[in-house]
Amino acid sequence: MKGIFPTGKFKNLQTPFYFYDTELLRETIRTAVAEAAKYNYHIHYAVKANANPQILGIIRESGLGADCVSGGEIQAALNAGFPADKIVFAGVGKADREINLGLDNDIFCFNAESIPELEVINELAESKGKTARVALRINPEVDAHTHHHITTGTKENKFGINLDQLDAVLDTLQSLASVRLIGLHFHIGSQLTEMEPFRMLCSRVNELQQKLADRNIRVEHINFGGGLGIDYDHPDEQLIPDFKEYFELFHTHFPAYPDQQIHFEPGRSIVGQCGSLISKVLYVKEGSVKKFVILDAGFTELIRPALYDAHHEIENLSSEEPGEIYDVVGPICESSDCFAKQIELNKTDRGDLIAIRSAGAYGEIMASQYNCRRLPEAYFSDLL
Ligand SMILES: Cc1ncc(COP(=O)(O)O)c(C=O)c1O
């Protein structure tokens, strides 16, 4: 699918860089918004997936809220113009200054993960004469069947309040006058490619609503988090994830109270497919048992393969010659700096442009300057 890249316009740009297809991003958002609107569901984009200011600007224009996991993300969302009353703040370790930032800006909700955190939010809110809206992030004990580094909803994980601790948390809340419980929050993991864990999440939340009802508690908001996966293996076959199936599943399996507001926090599914990492081939090195394509991009620009053994499709944008088998690696002084092993690419030479696909989520935002490298530029299809 070389056709989707304006390679002529890439010639004078310094590699490596991120390239974002803004039309695809807009189309993805339109689809997500239209499918969610069928059920009056609210979407808060998970800023952690990509906080590039232009990307945030496009997402904000479409009316989505922002899901943040740090003070820095709250600030990035505010800078991009997200209204504070559409910002939610999760995270297992919120620092006092981050909580204060949220309180000072009257963000919509703190997704609280423990009793000590609730106590600190209460204390800080009280000192400002405010009442903080909180949702309890519950660990629903649902296995997301995804990579162990990105599964979050089981007892073993550091995230959330475990089900057997919920009563104690609710008891504590009664003594905290400066926090108001408005909802429940869940996030079971990322890059879920099966729908079954989401269905299990729904039944868990149904049970929990019942448990709360037994204590005469009825929350106004349920937040199901993010996690919808994208097709890394065949990006062109499914450029836009199946939001229809996703939201329909929640509608079918989670009967909300009539006045209850339902929220989601997709990150990857919104921005994943619109971004590619564009790199140049520095060398083709013939080893004694294999050939290496050595790129000028490494895990400093896209860490997912090194961190999660993640697969990204790789294309040679400069060659139409018959395929050969290569390991595609970066220049970083670590053996883990490898994008793919023994894959077929059109015969590759020094200077060829390479696209690493599906890099819009957890790519640029996780870039580092390890080895004293510069952070790469980002370019946008409508601005080139
Ligand atoms: C609390 C929370 N919400 C939303 C997300 C976004 O997840 P995804 O990018 O898989 O949609 C994450 C990511 O891990 C998260 O931790």
Biggest sheet layout: 8 strands, mixed
Q: Give a list of the ligands.
A: pyridoxal-5'-phosphate
Strand content: 15-25%
Shape field: elongated
Class inferred from helices and paired strands: alpha/beta
Helical content stands at 25-40%
Report the C-alpha radius of gyration, rounded. Answer: 22 Å
| Oligomer category | single chain
Distance between the termini: 19 Å
Stretches where pLDDT is under 50 for at least 5 consecutive residues are: none
Annotation keywords:
8-stranded mixed beta sheet; elongated; single chain; alpha/beta; 8-stranded parallel β-barrel; binds pyridoxal-5'-phosphate; 384 residues; 23% strand; 28% helix
Question: Could you explain how this protein is built, in words?
Answer:
The chain is an alpha/beta fold and 384 residues long. It has eleven helices and 17 strands. It has helices at 7-10, 22-37, 53-61, 71-79, 96-104, 115-127, 166-174, 196-214, 243-253, 268-271, 304-308; strands spanning 17-20, 42-46, 65-68, 87-89, 109-112, 132-139, 161-162, 179-185, 221-223, 261-264, 275-286, 291-295, 314-316, 323-329, 338-346, 353-356, 377-380. Strands 1, 11, 12, 13, 14, 15, 16 and 17 form an eight-stranded mixed beta sheet that branches. An eight-stranded parallel beta barrel has the order 2-3-4-5-6-8-9-10, surrounded by four helices. α9 (243-253) links the parallel β9 and β10. The radius of gyration is 22 Å and the shape is elongated. 43% of the residues are buried. Bound molecules: pyridoxal-5'-phosphate.
